[in-house]
Amino acid sequence: MKTTFAALAMLVSVCAYANSTQIQSKSIQAGIITVTSPNDGDYLGKTNKVRFTITGASVQVTVKVTATLDSNPAITVSVEEEFDPDVNGEIEGDIDLNFASSTPEGDYTLTVDVDEPGNTYNAVPPISIIVDVRDPLFRNSNPLVDAFVRGVVNISAELDEPNIKEWRVRINGSDIPNNSGTTTVVAVVWDTSSIIDDGSQSITIVVEDLAGNKTTKTIGVTLDRVNPSSTILAPTTGSIIRPNSRIAVVIEILDQFNNSVHRTGIDVELRRLDDSYLARVARRSITQSGNAATWVGRIRRGRNVPNEFKIVVSVVDKAGNVAIVQEVTVRITGRGRGRGRGNGNSNRGRGRWL
User: d(Cα 249, Cα 220) in Å, to the nearest integer?
Assistant: First the structure.
């Protein structure tokens, strides 16, 4: 009988010890936190998320994220949030970690700490990150805004950004061949033959750095593949001009778009009948009205010209389309009113012009 009671007492003692051990083990069960993003060496921009998973949680958990500037530990950015576990004691969460534009850039150390009453967690190894809060900058770009283009267009830009992830060029919102890269120089060739209609086109260059900062540049251009035309309104072909008269030259230029012809694209010359060059006609004014331009010049006294000569007009619009060359022949006849040179004779047959 004594043996039976002794065995029973021993069994009760063992069960009590086992139960106590189980309760104690449960009370000191460690939670586990795993940071899934960012990783060592990642770039962080102005807006970021620190993502993590937690297992073994029992009650509400506080997660604190701190970024410390390596070169000056007094500069920190810290944020904390509370999270509730699900029925399995698990949490899948993220915390916004944002940096102001004025935040010093450079190498930071990211730490993640967890606090839960009655529970312990593993130590998260420090994470080395690089903070970059500056958006990429465009220094130069081509074509210029409001340019007129045709044929094969070279799209280029210089970028001020040391940590480029990608740049991408789109035309009217669509990709074109060989339109992306990672260098600090954008260089893309756009073949406009795939565009059916002339008119306004949009070139968009998007640059993203490794920290997720983005800059977009939009260049509006006009596709123009129609040649301009020119008409010499004065003088007319066969005009007879008296010596020493001032000759007004008036030219009308038409193109398919407004302001598509620049004054530097209009060239008015005096030539001999054999087409050899004499001089350029001085421009007095040019006026634009819609898709028409009126060029006015004057041939003044000041240089000898033959009795007969040609006025030749060449026009190239801003897109590089060339008009058909126009010309008129002018004949000088009659006696001028100027004084003769040296021998007292009046000028005959030749006047002094330009």
Answer: 36
Place of tokens 């669509």: 174
Residue among 109, 93, 100, 104 nearest 47 (CA): 100
Which of 334, 316, 223, 202 shows the shortest CA–CA distance to 265?
A: 316
Q: Is the peptide bond before 177 cis (omega within 30 degrees of 0)?
A: no
Dihedral of alpha carbons 75, 81, 87, 92, sign: negative
Locate 38 and state its tokens.
């960012």
312 vs 90: CA distance, rounded Å: 86
End-to-end CA distance of the chain, in Å? 144
Summarize pLDDT for 244-293 with one digit per residue, the tens.
788 899 999 999 999 999 999 999 999 999 999 999 999 999 999 999 99
Q: Whole-model pTM above 0.85?
A: no
- Per DSSP, the residues of 293-306 read EEEEEEE-SSSB--
Number of H helices, E strands in the chain: 1, 26
State how far the Cα of 142 lies from the Cα of 160, in Å rounded to an integer: 16
